[in-house]
């Protein structure tokens, strides 16, 4: 027989549900205003920002896309995809070294690497800008890509190291008995088992790199090199009186992230909890 819940337990459950509803509303409402606002005229939005668009208007999308939006979109795609791919490859190989090879100072180096996650990017802004200016790399994609890789690596290595350590040792030993080298074991045994954390890392890093503004604003100063978020920032000042145009630009910028998450969500939670149980 199920035990009856006490009033205190019921109050706790109700409070948790209300908090979840509130958080969900806080996440959904901005998206609702963004999408509905992009389909209204300026007058309709100002008169009734919360209502649904009775006669959808796509002039905002036309105005947004006819600006430099396609160029900004391509720039963001190039920087984000390049940075994330290099980060995943480097993080996977480094994490395999931390998880599988035993060498003096391994845990110390890993601890120092993990500690870099707490360093805010703004602290590194001036030194990185000075270095980029000396190299002549300001307003170049390679400088921003290298900075993104450096900022994404610590968390990526940490997550993958924990997962690799959770892989049963018997699988690794079986591969070694069969004569597989470390690289062959990594490629043929470890990587095929690492789909969920790799996809999770890809999604998390894509979200961060695509939405990042401060570093892109500093390092990509040329109009033709601006990222999407930097472009939209200036876009808002130029179209400050055209709310549908701004909303349309933001909606288009959000679509790639939404599609990426939809296709990868089945692996997302699995990847976040990967490595929580150590392999035998």
UniProtKB/TrEMBL annotation:
<keyword id="KW-0472">Membrane</keyword>
<feature type="transmembrane region" description="Helical">
    <location>
        <begin position="77"/>
        <end position="98"/>
    </location>
</feature>
<dbReference type="Pfam" id="PF00528">
    <property type="entry name" value="BPD_transp_1"/>
</dbReference>
<dbReference type="GO" id="GO:0055085">
    <property type="term" value="P:transmembrane transport"/>
</dbReference>
<dbReference type="InterPro" id="IPR000515">
    <property type="entry name" value="MetI-like"/>
</dbReference>
<feature type="transmembrane region" description="Helical">
    <location>
        <begin position="241"/>
        <end position="263"/>
    </location>
</feature>
<keyword id="KW-0812">Transmembrane</keyword>
<feature type="transmembrane region" description="Helical">
    <location>
        <begin position="198"/>
        <end position="220"/>
    </location>
</feature>
<dbReference type="InterPro" id="IPR035906">
    <property type="entry name" value="MetI-like_sf"/>
</dbReference>
<feature type="transmembrane region" description="Helical">
    <location>
        <begin position="110"/>
        <end position="131"/>
    </location>
</feature>
<keyword id="KW-1133">Transmembrane helix</keyword>
<dbReference type="GO" id="GO:0005886">
    <property type="term" value="C:plasma membrane"/>
</dbReference>
<keyword id="KW-0813">Transport</keyword>
<feature type="domain" description="ABC transmembrane type-1">
    <location>
        <begin position="73"/>
        <end position="264"/>
    </location>
</feature>
<feature type="transmembrane region" description="Helical">
    <location>
        <begin position="15"/>
        <end position="35"/>
    </location>
</feature>
<protein>
    <submittedName>
        <fullName>Unannotated protein</fullName>
    </submittedName>
</protein>
<feature type="transmembrane region" description="Helical">
    <location>
        <begin position="143"/>
        <end position="161"/>
    </location>
</feature>
<keyword id="KW-1003">Cell membrane</keyword>
């Amino acid at each position: 027989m199920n035990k009856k819940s006490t009033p205190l337990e019921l109050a706790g459950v109700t409070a948790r549900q209300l908090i979840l509803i509130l958080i969900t509303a806080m996440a959904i409402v901005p998206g609702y205003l963004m999408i509905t606002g992009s389909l209204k005229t300026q007058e309709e939005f100002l008169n009734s920002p919360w209502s649904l668009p009775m006669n959808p208007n796509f002039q905002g999308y036309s105005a947004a896309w006819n600006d430099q939006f396609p160029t900004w979109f391509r720039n963001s795609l190039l920087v984000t995809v390049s940075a994330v791919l290099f980060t995943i490859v480097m993080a996977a190989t480094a994490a395999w070294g931390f998880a599988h090879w035993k060498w003096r100072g391994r845990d110390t180096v890993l601890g120092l690497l993990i500690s870099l996650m707490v360093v805010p990017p703004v602290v590194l802004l001036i030194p990185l800008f000075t270095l980029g200016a000396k190299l002549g790399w300001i307003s170049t994609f390679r400088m921003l890509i290298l900075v993104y890789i450096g900022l994404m690596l610590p968390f990526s290595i940490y997550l993958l190291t924990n997962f690799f350590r959770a892989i049963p040792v018997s699988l690794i030993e079986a591969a070694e008995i069969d004569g597989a080298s470390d690289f062959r074991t990594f490629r043929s045994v470890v990587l095929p088992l690492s789909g969920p954390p790799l996809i999770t890392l890809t999604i998390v890093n894509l979200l961060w790199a695509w939405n990042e503004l401060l570093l892109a604003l500093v390092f990509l100063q040329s109009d033709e090199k601006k990222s999407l978020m930097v472009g939209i920032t200036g876009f808002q000042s130029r179209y400050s009186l055209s709310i549908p145009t701004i909303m349309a630009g933001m909606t288009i910028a959000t679509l790639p992230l939404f599609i990426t998450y939809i296709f990868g969500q089945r692996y997302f939670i699995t990847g976040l909890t990967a490595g929580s149980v150590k392999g035998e």
